[in-house]
Amino acid sequence: MMLRKLLIPVALPLLAALALLPTAAEAVSGGPGVEVTMPPVGLSIEYPLLAQDLGTGACPPPALTSELLQLGSPPLALAGASQDLTLPSGVPASPSPSWEAATLYPLPASFWSQLHCLLSSAKDPLTVGLNLKTGDLSWATQMVAGAQSTATNGLEFSLGNEPDLYELPNYSSLGNKLSQQEDLAAINLYLQLANDLRPAIGSSALLGPELAAAKHWQNQLPGVIAQLHDQTVGVHLYPFSACKDPRAATIPGLLSAGAGESPRSLAWVVADATAAGVPAIISEANSVSCGGMPGVSNSPASAVWAVRFVLNALKTGFREVRFHLSGGSYDPFVVEGEEIVDRPLESALVALNQWLPVGSSLRTVTTVRGLVTTAVSGDPGGPAVILDNEHARARTAVLPAAHAVTVAVLSAARAGLMKEVLPARHGRVKLRVAGNSVVAVLS
């Protein structure tokens, strides 16, 4: 077993910090905690994939509904690259043959009614991405009508997907820096197209601008937010790219501090959103862009990375992280007929929405050696603390406890969320945190 009692030196700073949670944690972190105001984890899914997952019946497979409920009814976004290639059901593409017309995806006639059936049971809020790059106002108007007939627990829209990449010729260009003149031209084109489609959504909430690499538009982002009147600022973030540099997308890379802490590089996005009086979220994320890296994105290490990534995003000021599903190796689960096949990442998403419910708060305890320690408060059924061992060697902690303590573990060495009850002896519980693992000490 990964967790067991050990007769080795203990981490006394942790004992001192945990003894008076949450007040001691607030003292050592130098301020109040970060409040969780949205479900910390959501889903972003491509249109064709969701249409496939909905199946052929009037309602989707019950297993899909159960999976969304297991995940905590997270926000569900219809987004990704297919967003700018999707047209309403029954609408013919351009009569003249072209590459764009050939790659457009018409929604199945039953799509909205099937999705309504799913959301009626699963209760997920819905975000609908509208085709900005190849669409027009009439298409957007029909998509909005379909979405309005579908949503059961909240609805918002986004206009276009990754407009900062519209002018790039191929995937090898992803993440490259355009010239200032090219950036300005892309921004002006995006704002023009977005304003043309804006009447379709009326007064509905708008999420955007859904940038692939927000740094491209860093100087202009405040103006974009103001002109679009975004209710939520959404940007995308992947620590690695299978298209641009697949050699970097390894398990050691995914477990590195840089991969887990990458949301900190976008703290300025949070600042811009805060200045505009709106929240910021990472509206599309996963381990490796371009569908993921087999053997890495679908490994147990992805679950450990996801916990680190989301905790760092929340502590940076982002309110939520939406994980992308595209039919690639990074998908947290796969629908196979009437069954759901879970991958290791899924257990992390379930855990995060359970550990960090809306209304709770979290803060970093800075005095603990060898462990990144996050104190959680405000949820009687959630964890008191989350311990993250970023090192390859195991670390040992001591918890003050009059009774047995339940812990939940995510490990890079083994898939799934494991739970164990540790007995208390002499008012303490000894806990071994294995290398590259995350342990939640449940209240």
What does this structure look like?
Helix 4 crosses helix 6 (111-122), helix 9 packs parallel to helix 12 and helix 13 (301-316) runs parallel beside helix 14 (344-355). The two termini are 22 Å apart. With 443 residues, the protein is of the alpha/beta class. Mean pLDDT is 88; it is low at 1-30 and 170-175. Strand 4, helix 5 (99-103) and strand 5 (105-106) form a beta-alpha-beta unit. It is globular, with a radius of gyration of 22 Å. The protein folds into 2 domains: 12-34 and 362-442, Sandwich (Immunoglobulin-like), CATH 2.60.40.1180; 38-355, Glycosidases (TIM Barrel). 31% of the residues lie in helices and 25% in strands. An 8-stranded parallel barrel has the order 2-3-6-7-8-9-11-13, surrounded by 6 helices.
Amino-to-carboxy terminus distance = 22 Å
Strand content: 25-35%
CATH H-level homologous superfamily name of the largest domain: Glycosidases
How large is the count of helical segments? 14
Number of domains: 2
The value of Rg in angstroms is 22 Å
